[in-house]
Design brief:
- With about 950 residues, this protein is α+β, with helices and mostly antiparallel strands.
- The chain is built from 31 helices and 25 strands.
- Bound molecules: zinc ion.
Length: about 950
């Protein structure tokens, strides 16, 4: 296609700049990755990575998914993925789950898998590298997954119900509409009939041989890659992979994995559908085009192609969101992208995704297309390009700055994409070096040639998808209306876009500096505490966990609790209102433009008991963050345009929110637990009438009037010598009165005693849900109780999963969690169980939920607790190397004098089954409060 020509032009320019080479140079592969292929076709990737310390991630990626299924196997690629956790040669029954748990690896978050149309990927993450046998055992699990699954008939039968319930859980309005229109969206292609979840009549009835046939046909070394990333010995790991996998034989007569083509469509494909549970209308316009073939992804051209496409869609997106703020804009939100056509890797599409204002679907789509056409006709301005390019390079620089501390998962994904889609693995050093040479040498004129190639001038390869809320009296858009609107826009003579920017400093006149008056050290947590001339306190905790991060939190007591009944809606939407406002002389859009290329932010928000300004930046942009903090305290600018656009968006989202059973259930839970206290209810569209912009700005002023009532925490990689004068300039200069201190008022209301709320509801797909809470409102917070609650919650979680999912097949997921809150207005220690269940088995699931907590008062499985302790210790080690963890620990210590850190590990080590039993009995159940909310489908 012609796109290539543009890239060639840009590429020639690039070659002239960079090298004397006559052809496109290949992209250099990251040297830190050891990649190889065994004789039987198995590919492997091994990479040493020291962050987090002593942790390893294991993956097996398969180049097959639901597209390889025969007609009688629909849903079995995904079914097979489940069976990987239900018995293999070396790990019988659920031993994979139990064994990895003994290493502190959580099933679900660390141990998991996914199946999509053309890939199936399994992973075991965050395995401690301290025991070498454990690493070998994880490789053995990968080996079992690759060709040692048992696929026993009785285990298969037990899993049918689980998958059927997964289908139910995932059945939403958009899922239903997508699924039934797939054959229309993919005419003449298998993609139209291979949704990974499959057909329930097959899931419920297939014979085990049909699943085994898929497994043996497709799970083979030539379709598989083993990926190991982390704190490991690369040579040893590679040798071990060879030893384990070399013996697997590759059959002579094997089926090849064919890439499924997506045919072009001469006539436009237009899908208009509706569903009673769809919460808002959405419309997508797509122009299909060929994806870059895998063989062509290895050279510089591909890097260029990605860059110029992302620059042009970023600029278009900026214009689309600016347009959305105009009062007469028919859409609420619109965005452009160029990526896979729906879910096919062989075909891409340039897409516009639009959320229209009610009744304006056609106009909304036309309006978004008009902006794209404007860019096609006149191109983008140099000023727009400078902004997106500097933002791109600045984000790249952020990653580069933190290059020594990138998580294993980033490299795991890189290798997975390389194996499955031949995406390049470029080191961050190479990427930065190349892009800093390339980007400044590609002019806006070259970028301006991209959109005219992506946006087709005729209707071939055109696809429109319009999903609507089904309601009586609604008139839905028609195919003819869409086509005629598109044709009209194509013929319009437009005017060029004008880029309005403010080229001024954020703060025109600097405030008079204050002073750091006194300072002291806190030896326990290694921080410095400064008191400023205006009475504000500043706490500095320097860390080196992330080279690219400084976190800031300014917090003060008060919050919503000091506001009356009339301000409940204002307080609930307070953060959304401040976020859509401007600062200083800059309105919302001008501010966004002014901050392009700068990685710094600060926002004012409010919770029930506090108001706070939260900030974040890279070290080099710390002064900008300080200016944003200063402006949040002193000068939030009213921006009616941005405000109205935000309110319109929220209104549309709220208007139909109770249409889905999930939100209706969540609303019932809050209403029941908080006894209909309006402060704790979710807001609805009606409430928006009470939202008052001026009053919100007044609240913002009042809540930030006294800096002396705030403590400012800085955690991260700051340079103290740089930060101190900035603190004097931007914090000590804020108005402050040390004599005035505020406190919050108690506002919480919890249901007491035994409360049961069981209700039915009409649904498109029958679903049932239960939520159970047991809590104590008298027991003051202690760290030990918080840890006991956490551990007890995890025990209950394991029991529910085993009894409700594995044994009863009554749900896809069932879980529990425990917590004790520090710093609320009412002490609160609780265990909570949740279960989206099979309607016919609701009574049984609910009975198990109730009985199992009672059983915990008598006995707790010692082996379960041992595994949970392992996970708690491991998670704690990981958390203690995060800035957010220290922000939390230090701010709680400062406000409440409670140390959540120092005794954590010793308390975890001291946990026993008896202690957990006693805690559930004497704290949780003795609290005497039990709330149970159950939703069932109406017959
Ligand atoms: Zn699943």
């Amino acid at each position: 296609m012609k796109l290539k020509r543009i890239f060639n032009a840009a590429a020639l320019l690039l070659i002239a700049v960079m090298t004397q080479a006559q052809t496109m140079p290949p992209l250099p592969m990251d040297k830190a990755v050891r990649m190889g292929k065994l004789d039987n076709g198995l590919t492997y990737y091994v990479r040493q990575n020291g962050w987090p310390e002593k942790r390893v991630n294991f993956y097996i990626a398969q180049r097959v998914g639901s597209i390889q299924e025969n007609d009688d196997q629909r849903g079995l690629a995904h079914f097979l993925e489940h069976m990987a956790f239900n018995g293999s040669e070396n790990f019988k029954g659920n031993e994979v789950i139990e064994y990895t748990r003994s290493l502190g690896v959580n099933f679900g978050s660390d141990l998991n898998a996914y199946t999509s149309i053309d890939r199936t990927v399994y992973r075991i993450c965050d395995v401690p590298s301290t025991r070498i046998e454990a690493l070998d055992s994880c490789l053995l699990i990968l080996k079992d997954w690759s060709n040692g699954l048992l696929l026993e008939a009785d285990e298969i039968d037990k899993e049918r119900g689980v998958i059927h319930e997964e289908w139910r859980l995932r059945s939403s309005a958009s899922q239903r509409m997508f699924e039934r229109n797939l054959p229309t969206l993919y005419p003449g292609s298998k993609y139209g009939h291979r949704m990974p979840i499959g057909l329930m009549e097959i899931i419920d009835n297939f014979k085990p041989e049909v699943l085994r046939a898929y497994y043996h046909k497709w799970y083979r070394p030539d379709n598989q890659a083993i990926i190991v990333i982390g704190d490991i010995d690369v040579d040893r790991t590679e040798a071990k992979i060879k030893e384990l996998f070399e013996g697997i034989k590759l059959e002579e007569n094997r089926a090849m994995v064919e890439r499924e083509p997506v045919p072009d469509n001469a006539e436009p494909i237009i899908v208009v559908d509706k569903d009673k549970e769809q919460q808002f209308n959405i419309v997508m316009l797509m122009f299909k085009h060929d994806a870059t073939p895998n063989e062509e992804k290895g050279n510089m051209m591909y890097l260029l192609e990605g860059y110029v496409k992302s620059m042009s869609t970023s600029m278009l997106n900026q214009r689309l969101s600016e347009k959305a703020q105009e009062a007469d804009c028919p859409y609420l939100q619109a965005s452009a992208s160029d990526e896979e056509y729906l879910f096919s890797s062989t075909k891409d599409a340039f897409s516009l995704t639009v959320i229209p204002k009610e009744g304006k679907t056609i106009e909304a789509l036309a309006s978004a297309l008009r902006e794209a056409q404007r860019a096609v006709q006149f191109g983008f301005n140099a000023s727009e390009y400078v902004r997106v390019r500097s933002e791109y390079l600045s984000q790249l620089d952020k990653i580069y700055t933190n290059r020594e501390k990138r998580n294993n998962a980033i490299f795991g994904d890189e290798c997975t994409e390389h194996f499955l889609d031949n995406e390049p693995i470029l080191s961050i050093e190479d990427q930065k070096m190349l892009m800093e040479q390339i980007a400044p040498n590609i002019p806006v004129e070259a970028i301006n040639q991209v959109l005219p190639e992506l946006i087709s001038k005729n209707d071939s390869n055109l696809v429109i998808v319009s999903f609507n809320t089904e309601k009586e009296g609604t008139v839905y858009p028609t195919k003819e209306e869409f086509l005629s609107a598109i044709n009209t826009v194509r013929g319009e003579q437009l005017e060029a876009y004008v880029d309005n920017v403010k080229n001024e400093p954020l703060i025109a006149k600097l405030p008079k500096k204050g002073k750091i008056k006194s300072e002291k050290e806190n030896a326990k947590f290694g921080y410095k505490e400064l008191t400023l001339s205006n009475g504000a306190r500043v706490i500095l905790k320097k860390t080196d966990y992330k080279a690219d991060e400084i976190q800031m939190l300014a917090i003060s007591k008060g919050g919503n609790s000091l506001l009356g009944e009339n301000d409940i809606v204002n307080s609930k939407l307070f953060s959304a209102v401040t976020a859509s406002s401007g600062l200083g002389e800059f309105d919302n859009q001008e501010l966004e433009k002014a901050l392009a290329g700068i990685q710094a932010s600060a926002n004012l928000s409010m919770s029930n008991l506090h108001e706070m300004v939260s900030g974040n930046c890279v070290p080099k942009d710390v002064e900008t963050m300080m200016q944003l903090v200063y402006l949040n305290f002193t000068n939030i600018k009213k921006d009616e345009k941005a405000y109205n656009s935000m309110v319109n968006m929220i209104e549309t989202m709220l208007k139909n929110r109770s249409l889905t059973p999930e939100t209706a259930f969540a609303d019932s839970v809050s209403a029941t637990v908080y006894m209909h206290n309006p402060r704790f209810l979710n807001i609805d569209a009606e409430d928006l009438k009470k939202l008052d912009y001026d009053r919100c700005l007044q609240i913002a002023k009042e809540r930030t009037a006294n800096a002396a009532d705030f403590t400012f925490f800085f955690v991260g990689n700051f340079d103290e010598a740089t930060l101190r004068p900035l603190i004097e300039q931007y914090i000590a200069s804020l108005p402050g009165n040390p004599k005035k201190k505020e406190n919050w008022k108690p506002v919480s209301t919890y249901a007491k005693g035994n409360v049961i709320n069981k209700f039915t509801r009409k649904m498109e797909t029958p679903k049932a849900q239960a939520r159970m809470m047991w809590y104590n409102l008298e027991q003051p917070y202690t760290l030990e109780n918080a840890i006991l609650a956490d551990a007890a919650g995890q025990v209950l979680d394991m029991i529910y999963l085993k009894k409700i999912r594995e044994e009863a097949s009554a749900a896809y997921s069932a879980g529990a969690a425990g917590s004790a809150t520090l710093g609320g207005d009412t002490p609160y220690t609780a265990l909570i169980g949740v279960c989206p269940m099979k309607p016919e088995m609701a009574d049984e699931a609910v009975k198990i939920m109730r009985e199992e907590i009672e059983n915990m008062t008598k006995t707790v499985d010692a082996d379960m607790l041992k595994k949970i302790k392992e996970a708690l210790v491991k998670d704690h080690e990981t958390n203690a190397k995060k800035n957010s963890y220290w922000m939390d620990v230090i701010s709680d210590f400062d406000e409440l004098g409670v140390d959540k850190h120092s005794d954590y590990l010793s308390i975890v080590q001291s946990l026993t089954p008896e202690k957990i039993s006693r805690f559930v009995k004497d704290v949780i159940l003795a609290g005497g409060n039990h709330v149970e909310v159950v939703m069932l489908p109406e017959e």
